[in-house]
Every structure is written in structure tokens, then in C-alpha cells.
Amino acid sequence: MTVEVEKSSIIGLHEDHLHLNDPSCTLMSNATHVFATMSLNSCGTQLEEDAENLIYKNEITSFEDPSSVITRRHEVEIGFSCEYSKTAEVILEFTPHKLPFAFTETGFGKFTYQFEFYHSSQFSQMVDPSTYPVDVPLKEMIYMEIESTSSIPNTVLFVESCKATPENDPNSNQYYDIIENGCTVDDTVVVYAENGPDYKFGMQAFKFIGDFNEVFIYCSVILCKSGDPATRCAQGCLNNPGAFASQKKRR
């Protein structure tokens, strides 16, 4: 994140006596502004969380020469923060067919997430987007990964829900639940990685009954502060009487 302060907005601002939470991170300046650019896990940046956002906070403060006895500089305390929305919707599409395996188009939520298909449960080779769309044989396993693509530190990704529709519309009246309330609903789902910056899972390919040739998968994902037991991510699967939660995992 980048912070800029206009020099004329603070009387007596001494840019050579300013630093961030980490004293080793000082500010740069030009004729009109003092400024600093940092990654989200540097310069003493602190992570906080509210119901909707992850909030990264830091502060510009003044310091004095330790060898000085007096000062005529004003003290400076300028707090600043950067917010990231915790929730996003991501989408993938595949075409069921009784021929070699298939996947389709890459889907993105808000800039921090990526949803991709992989060739195997090893997740070592992503399906080349230039080959999309590809057909998937019915009942063959398809492998998917949802990943937080930005360098947001100290966070975990949680998949709250996934559903499939026969058309490119998440509000379609015809849908099939795959994950609900953090619980696997489809009994072919296998979760390969969770509780980290990415979520890897697989399931058997299927098709909707009727004149439908494609399957669209929509997932609702949440980023949470890692190590915080009060977050939705830490709660995990919240079973309800109507859900068939198989919770099958492979490590």
C-alpha cells in the first residue's frame, strides 16, 4: 500500500524525521509530498478484522535525534489503513461429455482470488486456458483450486459455499449444491487442501438433466485473519439438518 501526505497540510513538517511503525521504514519526499510504499506484511503493518473487511493499519510518526536535548519540531501521528473485502464470488465452467476430460474458462472474483482447473490430484499442472473449452467425461474426477492471488499475509481462505447451475447465472432457479455452510454436500467431493491461502478439491463430473450442455460452478469464499478462533473460517463446517455433509478429505 502507498501513503502520501501533502507537505502544505501540516505546518512544520520535517520529512527527514518521520517513520512508520517499524522505525527502519522512513519516508521519501518530493517538492510537494512525503510518501511511502510498503507490502502488507512489512514496516510494522498490523492486521485487524471486522465483519466485512480485513484492515491493514500503520502509522506515520515523528522521531527525534537521540543526542538532542531539546526540539522545536511538532509531534506527528498520522494513522492510515487499507481495507480488503473478505468475501467474493468466483466461477468456473465445464462441459460434460462422454469423451476425454474437459474443463473451461478461468473465473475471477474481486482482484484477490483465482479459480482454476488442474489435471490431477497432485495439483502440479494447471489446465492450459488456451485449450478451453474441453469436455469432461461423466463421473471422471475434476480438480479445482481456489486461491488468494494477492500477497495478503496472515490470512486463510474459507469456502463458504459452492453450487452448480446449467447456465451462466448464479441466481438460476435450477442449481445443485456442492458445498453449503462450509460442509461438502455432494458425496463425491474430496478436499485436498484447506485452512491456508488456497482451497483444493475434486469431484466427479456430472450434467444437468435436460437440454443442457454446460455446468457452471459458483463458489462464495471468505478471507479471514489466521489464528483467530472467532472468525467464520475457524468455525468450519456448520451442519444443518438438510445438508448431506460427507466431509471426505485426503492428505
From TrEMBL:
Residues 1-240 form the ZP domain. The keyword S-adenosyl-L-methionine does not apply. Gene3D superfamilies: Zona pellucida, ZP-C domain (2.60.40.4100), Zona pellucida, ZP-N domain (2.60.40.3210). Keywords: Disulfide bond, Glycoprotein, Signal. It comes from the Eukaryota. InterPro entries: ZP-C, ZP-C_dom, ZP-N, ZP_chr, ZP_dom. This is ZP domain-containing protein. It comes from Albula glossodonta.
